[in-house]
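Lab notebook, bench 4. Still working through the backlog of constructs that have no structural model yet. Next entry is a single chain of 144 residues. Request: give me the structure tokens for it.
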Amino acid sequence: MVYQERVAWSQLIVSVITIAVYVALVVRSADGGELTSVDWLPLMLWTIGGGIVLTIVLSILWGIVAGMRDPQSATATDIRDRDISRLGGRVEHSFLVIAGLGVIALCGAGAHLFWIANTMFLGFAISALIGGIARVVAYRRGLV
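Model written out:
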């Protein structure tokens, strides 16, 4: 497995964990009450920060293990990696645009700030998840 594929897997794994942790924290904080009453900002910021740190740590540890197995190819990249990265980026951007449009619609409708912020968070999370899936599929099945 090449370096960029390991990073894609790391991001994909952490995206799933981050979404699950954030949703669990918000639901637990609501304690059966209104979701809009939850103090969501610290939960969101800590979850995003934790996701970033976890992705970095997982990528580094996975890279160390791969480097011990095959030091020469542990960080090697080629044109295919660049093309797969571009593909994943295009997929991610598509979902971010959809989330942005959803946020604009919610703002126009006068929705509660909780729903606006969580729509954007979900847009980022889904774009990372779908982009990661696109990258992994491209590595496994090739670019077609």
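Notes after review: The chain has a mean pLDDT of 92. The helical segments are 3-30, 40-69, 79-108, 113-141. Flag for follow-up if needed.
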